[in-house]
Amino acid sequence: LERLDEAVTCYRKVIELAPTFKDSYHNLGKIYYAFDNYVMSLETFRAYLAFDPLDEETLLLVGDTCKKLGLWRAAEETYRRIFQTNAQSGDAWQALASLYLDLGDNERALALVELGVRGNPNNRLLRDLQAGILRDLARFREAAAVYELLLTGSTNLVDDQRAQYTFLMADAYQQMGMTFLAIGTLKELLRRWPERQQAIDYLGSLFSQQGRWDDALEAFRELEKLE
Predict the structure, then answer these.
(1) Are 49 and 65 within 8 A, CB to CB?
(2) For position 203, what pLDDT does the model report?
(3) Does an H or E element contain 56, and which?
(4) pLDDT score recorded for residue 88
(5) Which residues contact 53 (CB under 8 A, 6 or more apart)?
(6) Low-confidence residues of the chain: pLDDT under 50
(7) What is d(CA 66, CA 178) in angstroms, rounded to the nearest whole number?
(8) Is 0.85 topped by the overall pTM?
(9) Torsion angle, CA of 151/152/156/157, rounded to 10 degrees?
């Protein structure tokens, strides 16, 4: 109902009555967070840690809030505390890697993600982050290999995710100069999902670059129909 002052009062009352009830700290902290009051948000989340210092969910919230305040070292230390009880936490690996990316340290982020992947080889979010960093570092061959792993090793991908990973793999092939593989991958994508406009447009552009004008024209006409 957007009666936030009353909501804050209620959450504070619950905290007074039941100091160890985590939901109240989280809900109250998220209200402050949503309205950019990161100081109060951090204070609220940290108050719960006084009762449960290694609660993973709360540590992630504290780390994220520290990032908003520019407290980079505190954020790093907070995320790393999660490993004391859960060395395989995919969320913690991802949060810490994202912190390094925010600081512009892509190499350190990649090293961390690859360390996390060793312990979590089937973690899709970590693999996705790994591929993205490899692309940013212009290591397209390795990025393409990660996308292939995602496509062959993930059994719970929806069609949109499969199509997007296939498209990114095709683009990685193109960036490394293997246009024939990029074209083949895009064709396979369109065989399964024929109305993907982004893939049709990219395929037409690749045909144009190769001087395959009839193929390019056919692709662009197909795109025109969908538009």
Answers:
(1) no
(2) 95
(3) helix 56-68
(4) 77
(5) 81
(6) none
(7) 43
(8) no
(9) 10
Cα–Cα distance for residue pair 220/104, rounded to 1 Å: 38
Structural contact between residues 112 and 93, judged by C-beta atoms closer than 8 angstroms: yes
Q: Are 80 and 97 in contact (CB under 8 A)?
A: no
Question: For 27-60, how does the pLDDT look when each residue is reduced to its tens digit (9 = 90+)?
Answer: 999 999 999 999 999 999 999 999 999 999 999 9
Closest CA to 23 of 54, 48, 59: 48
Which two structure tokens, joined as six digits, stand for 157?
Answer: 């991908």
Q: How many CA atoms lie within 13 A of 131 on its CB side?
A: 24
Instruction: Show Cβ contacts of residue 171 under 8 Å, excluding neighbours closer than 6 positions.
Output: 182, 202
pLDDT for residue 223: 87
What is the Cα gyration radius of the chain?
23
- Counting every residue written for the chain, the total comes to 227
Q: What share of the chain is helix, strand, coil (3-state, %, to 5)?
A: 80, 0, 20
Q: Are 61 and 38 in contact (CB under 8 A)?
A: no
Residue 113 CB burial class (10 angstroms; 0-12, 13-18, ≥19): buried
Check if the beta carbon of residue 135 is closer than 8 Å to that of residue 112.
no
